[in-house]
Structures are given as structure tokens and as C-alpha cells.
Amino acid sequence: MSVRTRFAPSPTGFLHIGGARTALYNWLYARHHGGEFVLRVEDTDAERSTAESMNVILDGLKWLGMDWDEGPGVGGDHGPYHQSERADIYDRYLAKLEEAGHTYEDEGAIRFKVPDKMITVKDTVCGDVSVNLKEQGSRRFEQETKQEVEANPDIVIKRPNGGYIFHFVNVVDDIEMGITHVIRGEDHLSNTPKHLALYEALGVDPPIFAHIPLNLNQNGSKMSKRDEGALIHEYQENGFLPDAVNNYMALLGWSGKDDQEIFSLKELKERFGLSGVNKSNSKFDYDKCLWVNAEHLKKLSPEALAAASAPFLEKAGIPSDDSRVPAALELARDRAQRLIEVPEVIATIFADEVIYDQASVDKVTSKDTSAQAVAALIAGLEAATEWTLDSIKPTIVTAAESIEVKMGMLMLPCRVAVMGSTSGADLIPVLELLGQEEVVKRLKGFAEKL
RNA sequence: GACCCGUUCGUCUAGCGGUCUAGGACUCCGCCCUUUCACGGCGGCAACACGGGUUCAAGUCCCGUACGGGUCGCCA
Asked: ipTM of this model?
């Protein structure tokens, strides 16, 4: 059986991590089975839908590396892919429903008669879930008054203004687009009996449903766009790798059932399956997401690292054609969890002036041995006849011996004098990259502070 | 409130009746490596929500309770 999945976002102006994760599961499932992934825009609610708000979502998906076989920008045989342009299709389906006597008018709106019987959702993740819509819908809970009131269980499928309602268009589109597997958030589980009733009234076999658990924030409530890590474009801006984000999203609700946690997109594609999806909601953990990104960073080829870092270097004013950049990036890769941290680690190498971190400076200047240490460093390093990775360390050792201290006593002052901070990249390679002249210059500049 | 779903370390999870004195990962804490910063290595803290069953045997099956989440729109 061929597989066709879909992601059907409404254009809200943000690609939310929950939505991206749903998209990912659908995409992964389709790709794993060699099937198709369809993108459809649910913009029936015209007020909040703009081209721009949709582009944000498309850009997010593209950045993550999810391609769609049909949908906005690529076309396909089942278009149009914006619900706002599919009115005639909905009209056609509504006529079918009307003919079969499944609908009636109610104050200008069209309602669908809900059957008075148990409807069972056979969910791939959640198992069988049964409900009687007529019974259920005959009462409604009013949030404001906290009261149950009588209600019409028959669902509205068309508004008096002619607009169609989600449940109806969702079902029609999935039928028309030949969707075989509907993978969506568990918040839709309770809606699914309505959809099943619609499928039956239309005389169409429903697709396979899989409702995936929700991602919650640290407080255990639904993630909102204010929560850290909620918006995909922020990952991009902060220097996360797309594959790392995919990796982390996949892990939120899916497991490969072994101890592997770091997956490339390709591996995810090979291994993803609905049987690995679990039933309970998960809380988003930014720290773990950072760790996953760091792991992906470590695995990047030098070329890929350079390419991914380029925008961040540019923003920091580091010339990417500087011959020292590749070496500097290697120094940064192990201590940055995100690309945005890369410039912080290596900026001092490319800076004309050392930018001193006051706390680091204080730490060094408060020691009365520091002046002597810096003097020894200047003397030793200035006199060096060789300046290579291998030669610098012995030179510093010799300088330390000249004032009868251990090398460790010189490293911190040297670090702060040259790099401006007690933390940062590996010192010796930085010295090598900077060159003898620059290092001595920086040491002398720092000596004046003492 | 009614209905639906869920409940293993703080968090993500493994576990599909015996191999569980419950495994891995993140975080945190030690130690080692490093005469610098990290990476890394090793180790530690830490969980089967509760109560009843079923069974020779239950984290694993069943039923309750509690807690959490979801749905109940002429939003999607």
C-alpha cells in the first residue's frame, strides 16, 4: 500500500515546535515508506491568513530539510493546496451530503446530522477509542459560567457567511488528496469520531489515524510561543543545526527502542515508525536540546562547519576568507553548543584590540605575581626563534623556569593578556594563530595595566 | 462538569509476566585526563502515582482512586 501523509498548518505566522514535530513525523513516515508527503494550507479562517504568515511556515520546513511532493510552491495533481481556493470542491461534497439527507439548515448555517451510535477510532498509537457523538454533543460546557447547557450535537460544517468549518474541509481534503495516514497531535483525538462520521456519511473508507502525544513546556502546560525553544526560526537564529532540531523533536515522543539518541536525518528516515511513538505527553527540555545540537556540531565535516558558521561569523565581523578561520572553527567546535556561540569563542583571534573581560582581568591583576609572570612571558616569547604549535609550549615552560614557577602559573595571565578572558579557546593554538608579533604586542599592552 | 487519553529517576525514555537489587540519556555532584579552556573517560545522586485484584510470579494484565493532559465553537 502506498503511503501519503500530510501536514496541514494554518498560517499563524510562526512555525511552532509542536507543528514542526507533527510535520516531521508525517514526513518521516512518508519517506520511510517511500511514499509522498503533502503540504496543505488550512486558511479557511481568512482573517489570520496572509501570504507572509504562510511563508514563515514554509521557510521553517525548508530550513529543517522537509521537502514536500505536493503543495504550495511545487504544485501537484490534487491542488489547489490552499483551502481558501477549494470552495467548489467543498460545495460538491456538501451536495453529496445534502442529497443523502445528512444535513439541514440551522439559522443560515449547515449542520451535519451526527449518528446516534458508538463510533470507534482505531488509532495506531492510542488503540481503540469509542464515543457516541449524539450523547456527547447534547451537552456543552460553558467555560465562563462553568455550567453544562443543552446543546445541538449536530456539527456545523458551513457558516452562514459561506465559509466551511475545519472538520468538514479536513475530511474532504484528506479524501480528495488521497491521504492514507493522518498523523496529528493528540488534541485531535476527541475530534476524530466526528471525522469518522463524516467519512461514513460520504461513503469513503477513512485513513489510518495516529495521534501523537503533545509537547508541553516545563510547567506541564501546552507550549506557547513565549516558551523558550517554541519557535523554529529562533533555532535558526541561535545557531542550531536543522538535523539537531529534527533529532530532538523526534525524540520527544518517539524512541528507537535502543540506547541511540543521536540520529542523522537519514538514520531517522530509516528507523522511524509509528510503533516507536509513545502515548504520554512530554515536557520540552532546552538543555537536552542544546546537548543534541552540540553532538551534531561535533560530527560536522570541516566544510559543513564552515558553511554553517558563515552567517554567524559575518554578523560578528569575522572575515570568512581569513586563512585562520578553519583552524579557529576547530577550536570553537568543542566548546560551543550553538553556532551563535562560535564568534564569542574565537572573536579575539580576529580582533584588532583585545576585549577584556573585567572579572577575568581582576582575577589576574589581584595576584601580585602576575606582573612578573607577564614580564617573563614577554621576554620568553619575544625571544623565540620558532613559532609553531609544538614550539610554543616549551617556550612558555622555559619562561616559567626563568622565574622559578610552574607553567601553570603563566597560563592564566597569558590567557587573559592575549585573549581577554579566563575562558575561551585552547590557548596555545590561539597563540600560534595570532603570530608572535601580535602576541607580544598584546602582552605588552596588558603589562601596562599591571 | 461530561467524555476521551495518559501516569517508570527533576526531564526525555528502555521495559511488551520471570533475565528488574529497573537499563540508557540530559541536568547536577565527585574523581581522572589536561602544567591553560574545553572535549573526553570513570563514578555518584535519583523513578515503577496509590489501593485492590489475577497469577507460582506484576513496572509489565484487570478494576478503582488520585494526579496530569485533551475535547466539548458558526477556531484550526
From this structure: 0.94
